[in-house]
Write a structure and sequence with these properties.
The protein is mainly alpha-helical. It contains one helix and no strands. The model has no long low-confidence stretch (mean pLDDT 92).
Length: 79
């Protein structure tokens, strides 16, 4: 009976050690996820700013092209 208790206590101890290791690993992974989420917020802001800047530059380019070529379809038969 005493030996069986020691075997069960040892088994419990190993299970607790394994459980605590899993808890520690889980904590590390949660921290990594939180860091990645914070980074994503920053990168999303940068991406949005760059998209807006690109859109503005495309619009400005279109305006410059329009000014440079005011009449892209001239009348082939002038009066």
């Amino acid at each position: 009976m005493n030996k069986q208790i020691k075997v069960l206590e040892h088994r419990l101890h190993r299970a607790l050690v394994k459980f605590n290791e899993a808890i520690a690993a889980n904590k590390d992974l949660r921290e990594e996820i939180d860091n990645l989420r914070r980074e994503r917020v920053v990168f999303d802001g940068i991406y949005k700013k760059l998209q807006l800047e690109l859109s503005e530059r495309k619009k400005k380019m279109a305006e410059i092209i329009e000014v440079a070529n005011p009449n892209p379809n001239p009348n082939p038969n002038p009066p």
